[in-house]
Amino acid sequence: MPDIVSEIASYLRRLFPICRSITGEGNRETLRILQELVPLKVLEYPSGQKVYDWTIPREWNIRDAWIKNASGEKIVDFQRSNLHVVSYSIPVHARMKKRDLVEHLHFREDLPSAIPYRTTYYKENWGFCLSHDDYMKHFRDDETYEVFIDSELKQGSLSVGELTIKGRTDKEYLISTYICHPSLANDNLTGPVLTAFLARELLREKTNFSYRVVFVPETIGAIAYCANNEEAMKRIGTGFVVSSVGGPGKVGYRQSWQKDSVVNSVIEETFREKGITDYKVYPFDIHGSDERQYSSQGFRINIASINKDRFYDYPYYHTSLDDLDFVSAENVAFCLDLHVAALRSLDRNIVYRNLSPNCEVMLSKHGLYETTGGGQLPVFGTRNRQDLILWLLFHCDGTKSLWEISRLLDMPVGPLFDLAEELAKRNLLVES
Amino acid sequence: MPDIVSEIASYLRRLFPICRSITGEGNRETLRILQELVPLKVLEYPSGQKVYDWTIPREWNIRDAWIKNASGEKIVDFQRSNLHVVSYSIPVHARMKKRDLVEHLHFREDLPSAIPYRTTYYKENWGFCLSHDDYMKHFRDDETYEVFIDSELKQGSLSVGELTIKGRTDKEYLISTYICHPSLANDNLTGPVLTAFLARELLREKTNFSYRVVFVPETIGAIAYCANNEEAMKRIGTGFVVSSVGGPGKVGYRQSWQKDSVVNSVIEETFREKGITDYKVYPFDIHGSDERQYSSQGFRINIASINKDRFYDYPYYHTSLDDLDFVSAENVAFCLDLHVAALRSLDRNIVYRNLSPNCEVMLSKHGLYETTGGGQLPVFGTRNRQDLILWLLFHCDGTKSLWEISRLLDMPVGPLFDLAEELAKRNLLVES
Amino acid sequence: MPDIVSEIASYLRRLFPICRSITGEGNRETLRILQELVPLKVLEYPSGQKVYDWTIPREWNIRDAWIKNASGEKIVDFQRSNLHVVSYSIPVHARMKKRDLVEHLHFREDLPSAIPYRTTYYKENWGFCLSHDDYMKHFRDDETYEVFIDSELKQGSLSVGELTIKGRTDKEYLISTYICHPSLANDNLTGPVLTAFLARELLREKTNFSYRVVFVPETIGAIAYCANNEEAMKRIGTGFVVSSVGGPGKVGYRQSWQKDSVVNSVIEETFREKGITDYKVYPFDIHGSDERQYSSQGFRINIASINKDRFYDYPYYHTSLDDLDFVSAENVAFCLDLHVAALRSLDRNIVYRNLSPNCEVMLSKHGLYETTGGGQLPVFGTRNRQDLILWLLFHCDGTKSLWEISRLLDMPVGPLFDLAEELAKRNLLVES
What we know:
Three copies of one chain form a homotrimer. With about 425 residues, the first copy, chain A, is α/β, with parallel strands linked by helices. Chain A folds into three domains: about 1-55 and about 155-345, Aminopeptidase, CATH 3.40.630.10; about 60-155, Domain of unknown function DUF2172 (Glucose Oxidase, domain 1, 3-Layer(bba) Sandwich); about 350-430, Arc Repressor Mutant, subunit A, CATH 1.10.10. The first copy, chain A, has 13 helices and 21 strands. Chain A has helices at about 1-15, 25-35, 100, 130-140, 185-205, 220-230, 230-235, 260-275, 290-295, 330-350, 385-395, 400-410, 415-425, and strands at about 40-45, 50, 55, 60-70, 75, 90-95, 105, 130, 145-155, 155-165, 170-180, 210-215, 240, 250-255, 280, 300-310, 350-355, 380, 385, 395-400, 430. In chain A, the strands form six sheets. Chain A has an eight-stranded mixed beta sheet with strand order 1-10-12-11-13-16-14-15, with helices on both faces. Chain A has a four-stranded antiparallel beta sheet with strand order 5-4-9-6. Chain A has a three-stranded antiparallel beta sheet with strand order 20-17-21. In chain A, α8 (about 260-275) packs across α10 (about 330-350). The longest helix of chain A is centred in the middle third of the chain and has 20 residues, at about 185-205. In chain A, about 45% of the residues are buried. The mean pLDDT of chain A is about 95. The interface of A and B includes residues 354, 356, 361 and 365 of A.
């Protein structure tokens, strides 16, 4: 699919340089660009709003920031990389010796060429991030430096992108991604880009289920969204957090909190169908992304994630080396394809009820009786179409999804999707 | 048991020639003969009655049928075998060339000496069945044949035999067999014959449970019976379909839909007690006989079947080779014995409740205390009579049947049956 | 702990000679002495009271008993060992030949130096117990003997010691021991002695749960206590029967009736923590001590027992060889330590509920956010303190005890106890 790869590549390039955080104009600009792909609604939750145990912080924006050496030379410059400034740094303009400045400097000796990513959302502070190489090159004990951060913290709002896709039924799946990271490619610019393309695909299809697609700043945004949409969110049972889907490493998936949940099985079957046998499985953990919120007691949504280089798994995580060279649009397209396939399965995983629960139906009356039994080709294993029709009528009692029935029959769910739809069209099954 | 074998042999011989179908005089005559053994009530469900998704068809009767060749010689003759006519054939009297006749002729090249068994219950048609040998011998391309079927389809009724045996409690087990097959011995003349003898045995014993014994034409008869006895049938939890119990092959059993149901365990333990270690186990399948109706969602009865040469398992199935030479009265008597033994176990599988749930009872007060503990012989394994009494009083809480308790104690259920009855007589246990 | 060993030894010595039975002054004296350790309330249930299927028997007391030979020499003397008289013997004073006396004499040929222990609570009778050696030495066929039992059976009462220790919550654990055995050391003088010391320890600690500690005559005393405290007893879920805790053999524990109950796991983990890897496990059995009453249907308490030489396991059981030489105060102190440790675990096994079920709490607001993640030492395995805090907040939903959560996390429960208490102090968790 060369076209979609080019499209993805173009959005990665345009969105990468924007300075995002948990609030601010960078997030709004990001959502505006994604609105080219899907009609996102932008929700603004005001600073100071109480959202469960949390409070929406002041909105942060930044225009410029730098450190100059004694010669007036900019040795650290926000214009070159937005990672140079600790996110949510308060404004500062001062001259100071290295010994006072150093506690505001962040670098990684273990990755000397990388600018690390640091934030100070909930503690008033300021700081600069730089490569260890630059630190060694530019800073001297006796020198005085001028530091300048032209940022602003104000009563504003936190921005969330939301798209609700109406399917045939009101039952919803959740798709969530986070938009708070500045110029970091795999984690997580690839997340919102894939999500927007995924949403465009869902909009094009006529889905059975409804979909709630949200673009939130991580943690506080997910919490704010839950608090402002509590009733709807408490009705959702299953979803995805889209994150880290463009790296060069091995594909894998993070399991949802209930190990035997349908979403975990669907992902494994999707991998199998796509011929992917060598993949990573990450058990549910209390660390992770916004599944921490969505799987909390009040919601208990089974959230899984498909990843290509899951965060933590690659050394460039949360540094400037997680850039557009690290990811590829092909990888994102590959993961998009997996998400689409998994959601297509979930979209067909309907709970049906046999409308004639007492005894068998008369198959011939409904045009379902195969008179030439011997001539029927098997649909799965040794079972032919008529066998599966009878099994569906036997099992569809309004309590088990097709996926669960496929497990009882020890077979892939695919053939059941088609047959159940046909039986529903003939008014033998009804959605429950 | 030579007497019962002779009795069975005699009924097989008398019933074999009768032309049965899903309706008609042949079925009534069959039930009349079986009434010599047990006081069957004959129920008549009228043609046209709606029974769930089905409609009772018109009643079919046939007097004669043949095909004559150009010389007026009867080359196919219903009087020689009722299998020669496709069941539910409409009347016909015509002369036709082989090329027109051939679509009404049924034979099996793979079994050249066998007349196959064919029906056309729900599609107006007619036809003859004959051996491939006869077909090759008698039919020539250029010859004209006279065909004659003297049958009748009329507003009549479908006949069902029913016997309800009242036990001490109203809880019922179901025993069902089918009477729609013409001259076919193993499947299924042996079924109704065994069932009648089984019912006679149950009538002679003083049973704990009640028994509903039904003789129905397969599928439509079971459906009609369910529809006309819905409330009673929905209360039943367990039963047998009696079918194919006289062949020379290996004994086996078809499991009921819930693999861990008591009826399946009872059959396995019955086999064990009878020293039968080499038997077939057929898992529940959506194909089969009337368990398809009884196990449907509306009823969900756990129906098992004990078979000797289960249908499908022998090549003569549904052909004239399944005749009185294929089966034997000894085999039927052998299977009867298994059915009786299994039902005796089920009949004792009572759910009891300890009338003194708080603390232990004072065994000596009830004459149950063994003062000479050392002298007590073990009743099972290392457990003696008093141990088992205490275990029964511990476990009988009104929710678990004796069978389930035997599983908790990892022992055969037999000794518990006797002890529980004794404790009930002493008013320590009561049926729940 | 040398002090407690001396204390235990002193109580064993003082209590050993007292003649206890299921009623009588010996039991009251025993309870009076134990009142030095803990403020036991003594309850008296009157003779003739109906308690479920049983009736409190008359009270039995004995002053003296002997058998004299023809020379007037006391060849059996109650003053030398209270085991010499069958407990509940009616008064007798008679002269008789050996042939008439012998049916009232009890000895054990297999343990020729031991006086066996016998009772006749519910059948009026009398008897003497003596060693087989003495029997062979003193009894001759032609001699006449004088037998004398100065006992009394009167309308009195059955005595029970009870201590209820009030904890922070009303939820109770049960600790029960039996006081009906005369001079028998391991089974069961060690039981009430350990129980009294255990109760003293519980009184000194500020416990979370409440404790109901009872000293009852076996069987009839437990039944009487249940009948007179039915409502309270039916609310209890878990407990211990303390018995046989001073022998030289291997330590072990009797499992409670539900194999996967928390009390069984707690004991196993206690053993593990104490470095005890070689111990016996006795599955729940219908024989045993007062768990027979407490685990009956009406109560279904999960009662376990920690033993050192469990009754039946040593040949001296229920004979005069189970004396103060067989047991040691050190062994009792060792088992006391195990009981204390297991109860400390159970006492902390609280069911908590997260007060902020929707999304995560903001850890930093509650002073729980570790800014220097890297510096945190793991608390268990690879999990650090903050991981466990998050897991507790995830799992504490008001339905699972900490023990059950430790099983879900596949880790020991210890670290969870401390953290949960801390979270409760910070008003993040509340007891459920």
